[in-house]
Design a protein that fits this description.
The protein is α/β, with parallel strands linked by helices and 300 residues long. It is built from ten helices and eleven strands. Bound molecules: NADP nicotinamide-adenine-dinucleotide phosphate.
């Protein structure tokens, strides 16, 4: 079997276009422009790249983008004061504090100080609880993107066996909740899981969110399964020339694609969906704040 490639880049472009249409409608019919505030503390190079592209895409879909860049030694008090200001700003519908924060700042405290209705990352304890109890919440962007691609590919996921490898709060756990919400039979695997290859071989859907380059080989994949590779790992690529590197996922793409029914590539799979879902969440938050109907197909 040669797997169908699930093109996350194209799918994300479609989601952003859908968001842009809805934003234009909101402006025209209600005079409202959704606004996303992104807070970056320090100068972590990867975070700077993420924040730049988030800002660019926010503006491209017609939303207002507010960037707050703070010194690496910003105090917790000052950061909390900024979050409070954004919580009270009616022009701001979504707030994202870029992680990781410098070590002297308490991430949980900062995230839980965001108004849950504006928590477009879906990391606030209230949103985690709402998702876990099957209630309307803000859903973490990366797992939401994975769910959208799975629904698009399969239609209904009901009754499918899903294995999520990884139990982080930002990917693995919310992914498992979303799959459960869509009536999959869900297994969460992690570093202590026994017989991981056998566990993965049972799965109709495999979501790999580990952070280990090409850890899942093709012979762990059930023939015809759908593979969603969340991993983003930079590895040396001497074949591209001296000192060169490349991005790979947590799945060994070539061998997995030979057995899977469908697979997301890295890059160009889950990655682009994450920012698209951030924009979708900001739109959803804006509609909820203004008691307007939520756009269809952009939330869980
Ligand atoms: P994380 O917090 O480091 O969690 C990794 C998980 O993998 C942990 O639960 C860990 O288990 C598990 N694990 C580690 N080694 C394992 C092994 N040998 N066998 C089975 N499980 C193992 O990572 P994360 O934040 O969830 O991110 C995972 C990957 O996704 C990373 O590559 C990250 O860069 C990528 N990512 C991509 C996007 C995107 O937009 N595409 C967004 C977020 C993250 P224990 O809990 O037992 O330690």
């Amino acid at each position: 079997m040669v797997a169908q490639v699930i093109d996350g880049k194209a799918f994300a472009a479609k989601v952003r276009a859908q968001v842009a249409d809805q934003v234009a409608k909101l402006k025209e019919e209600n005079g409202i422009t959704p606004g996303l505030a992104v807070v970056l503390v320090g100068e972590d190079p990867a975070s700077q790249v993420y924040v730049r592209s988030k800002g660019k895409m926010t503006v491209e879909v017609g939303m207002n983008s507010y960037e707050h860049k703070l010194d690496v030694d910003t105090s917790e008090e000052d950061l909390l004061a900024l979050v409070e200001k954004l919580n009270n700003d009616p022009a701001v519908h979504g707030i994202l504090v870029q992680l990781p924060l410098p070590k002297h700042l308490n991430e949980d405290l900062v995230i839980n100080s965001i108004d849950p209705a504006k928590d477009v990352d879906g990391f606030h304890i209230s949103n985690v609880g709402l998702l876990g109890t099957g209630q309307k919440s803000m859903v973490p962007c990366t797992p939401l993107g994975c769910l959208m691609m799975l629904r698009d590919h399969h239609g209904s996921l009901s009754g499918m066996d899903a294995v999520v490898i990884g139990r982080s709060n930002i990917v693995g756990k919310p992914m498992a909740q979303l799959l459960l919400g869509d009536s999959c039979t869900v297994t969460i695997a992690h570093s202590r899981t026994k017989d991981l290859p056998d566990v993965v071989r049972r799965a109709d859907i495999v979501v790999a969110a580990v952070g280990r380059p090409e850890m899942v080989p093709g012979d762990w994949i059930k023939e015809g399964a759908t593979v969603i590779d969340v991993g983003i790992n930079r590895i040396d690529a001497p074949e591209k020339g001296e000192g060169k590197n490349k991005l790979v996922g947590d799945v060994d793409y070539a061998s997995a694609a030979a057995r899977a029914g469908a697979i997301t590539p890295v890059p160009g799979g889950v990655g682009p969906m994450t920012i698209a879902c951030l924009l979708a969440n900001t739109l959803t938050a804006c509609c909820r704040a203004n008691k307007l109907p939520e756009p269809e197909g952009l939330t869980a």
